[in-house]
Amino acid sequence: MKRKTSCGILAIALGMLQMRKFRVHKRLLGVLAGLLVLSASVARADFLFTIDTGNLGGLDAGTGPYATALVHLVDATHATVTFDSLDDGTNTYLMGAENAVDVNVNASTWSLDSATGTNSFPVFSPGPYSDGGAGTVDGFGSFNQTVNSFDGYTHSATQVILSLTNTGGTWADASSVLIGNASGFSVGIHGFACVDPCDAGTDAAFTGFGTNGEEGGGGGGGGPIPEPGTLILLGSAMVITFAKLRKKLARS
User: CA 120 to CA 87: how far, in whole Å?
Assistant: First the structure.
């Protein structure tokens, strides 16, 4: 949406100049054209899934959302998926045990290069993690890449990062790294709800599984997150350019 908005504003500005036949310096037009190219680069954004749907009788006991999964494309064949726990004001949803984090990879063949976890609360000891291969996540169908964590609650994490390599092709952008499974879900977690602040010495309030949105792709289905550096550069350049335009028009 941001890319379309910025491109639209610049296109309107160029159109106004053409319609009113203002004489604008060629260098300024070059800057505008460059901004259009720069705004297009926002399309190479990260892709964020919100895990906001819990399984019946499990994670749906909490209001959620439970976690996010941020997909980052390193290059055409390498990507990371970062899962972060969320706090809904009452509970924080830690990730652990079997099917701790799960993804449905959009590739014919791939490798899980690493899985690492951390917990922002003291005493917890996340992992170690193991490749669970394909498996069913309770209530949400089969995911072609599941990741298991050792033991349960005391080894859960507030953040888990997966590194993936596409060995059967390439990914065009972050949004193409994962794909919905047969039920339309792309990411999932095994969550442990703990009352804030989480204490490894106190059992989780409840546990269950969560995924991105309702069956068929609703809810937190996912969306692009423009890279901060690109947005800052684009915004600054737009401010400078329009300031020059205003000054140029005032002289006309």
Answer: 12
